[in-house]
Amino acid sequence: MKNKTIFELQNISVEFEKHSLNQRSLREAIGSRLKGRRLEKTKALNNISLNIEKGDHIGIIGRNGAGKSTLLKVLTKVIFPTNGNIIRDETQHVIPLLELGIGFQADLSGRENCYLSGILMGYSKKEISDKMNDIIAFSELEEFIDEPVKNYSSGMYARLAFAIATDINPQVLIVDEVFGVGDEFFMRKCIIRMQKLMAKGVTTIFVAHNLDFLVTQCVRLIWLEKGEVMMDGNPAEVASAYRNSKSPLRLVNVQ
Amino acid sequence: MYIDHFLHTPSIRFAWQYAKNQLRTKYRYTAMGFLWNFLEPALYLVILSLVFSVVNRMNINDYAVFLFSALVPWRYFEKVVNTILESIVNGEWLIKKMYVSPFAFPLNRLIISSFEFLFSMISAFILFIFLKENWSIHLIVLPISIIPWAFLAAGIGLIGAVLYTFFRDVKPLVQLLLTLTFFTSPILFKPDIFETGTIQQQLMQLHPFTYLAALFQKPIYMAAWPTANEWIISFGFGIAALLLGIYLVNKYKSKFYYYL
């Protein structure tokens, strides 16, 4: 049986203007219009077409600036692509974890931030309060949950953010290299939590630099290079092709 | 699709929850806490009425009631325009990282300013107890009187927010327009200082804020109902501005990310 498509990207391109700072004032805009100056553009994503299906576990690899984060931002509706079409299954609850603790307010307590953050992820207040105990338990913040988060250590902060994102009811998780934050114990805890969610059928899309992690966890690996899909398929094959392509480049750089 | 962005439930919930948190934390660490909500506008109004009654050599009680009646909604108007104008750019910390409707931050600013307006109005009425003699039934329309002000302010704020996202130097321009509007509106001075038939008097007839101000001045100062004309013109301007603002945000929202 064919799985349901959650994201269908058709010829997606995202272009950024170089030196866009210059354009930020009316004076400059009129000036450059009069001079007929055209802004240079760079393509963060170049004509990408992809299908992501329900239950997929996808890893995205590529060097810095390859367009990985841009792709995740297109999937999470943060960026409207310059060209192309994207069809989404709006019934799926997509949880973006592009950064831990997006939307956290330093002056608010952990509990208040749970509500704010949970609401941003699309949950209702009731769904959040029903899971509050689980969130507190996972983040190990029992005594500190009513303290302002500005007094939290970075580990406490990360645990709380990760707990909110994964505890309630995610159906699609989009994760951008966020496990590097806490200590090793936290990392292991996160990975176990992710594996459980994946086993439950939650669709996951990871960006990570840890190839071994991706090869063991994912069923499909996408390799991006300069905004284009270089390879898309079996994790072990893509990973070894990526590794081989990387080493000569490194040597050149060293010389 | 437009409606989807406008009524995106999580974004509305966020605007509301975030406003509640902001109002709560604003005074959390101040000694007088919640009382500041009333004291700050009251002090402002007292100082302003003292100054202007001396300058204009008018009966202070009478002038203060006249002045406060339209000044309190004007301050609300100015606050809403200024904060909505900046709201999308200031919301960068979230908008660039997670999807929220482009209307979430403007709505959040509108909610906060509306609460502050409520506090200012209560302060003004506490002062009215000492200043005002003719209390009348007409005061019951005030909750409706503020609606066209809110629409107009939100609309102009949204138009400004779109411009401000692309051109950061529109802010002083908007400030200038607000100042110009304020000093030409019959808020500081009474419209009857111009004799009928003069150019000034005719220009006042064309000024939208003549009608908006009347929605507050008539019930509070003159103990009268605003006329049908005043309602229609005020709501007309308000709705037109709001629709234009919503239209512009929808038209340009896909470009915001690239300019934040």
What labels describe this entry?
heterodimer; A: 255 residues; alpha/beta; Rossmann fold; 6-stranded mixed sheet; 3-stranded antiparallel sheet; 9 strands; globular; disordered C terminus; B: 260 residues; mainly alpha; 11 helices; 78% helix
Oligomer: heterodimer
How is the biggest beta sheet of chain B arranged? none
**CATH hierarchy class name of chain A:** Alpha Beta
The profile of the biggest β sheet of chain A is: 6 strands, mixed
Question: What does the model show?
Answer:
The complex is a heterodimer of chains A (255) and B (260). Chain A is of the alpha/beta class and 255 residues long. Chain A has a single domain, classed as Rossmann fold, CATH 3.40.50.300. Chain A is 40% helix and 25% strand. Chain A has helices at residues 26-35, 68-75, 110-120, 125-139, 154-167, 184-199, 211-217, 235-254, and strands spanning 5-17, 41-53, 57-61, 83-88, 94-97, 172-176, 203-207, 220-225, 228-233. In chain A, helix 3 crosses helix 5, helix 4 packs across helix 5 (154-167) and helix 5 (154-167) packs parallel to helix 6 (184-199). Chain A starts with a strand and ends with a helix. By secondary structure, chain B is an all-alpha fold. Chain B starts with a helix and ends with a helix. The model of chain B has no long low-confidence stretch (mean pLDDT 90). The A-B interface holds A 16-17, 20, 23-27, 29, 73, 76-80, 96, 98-99, 102-103, 105, 107-108, 112, 115-116, 119-125 and B 9-10, 13-14, 17-18, 21, 25, 28, 94-100, 166-170, 253-255, 257-259.
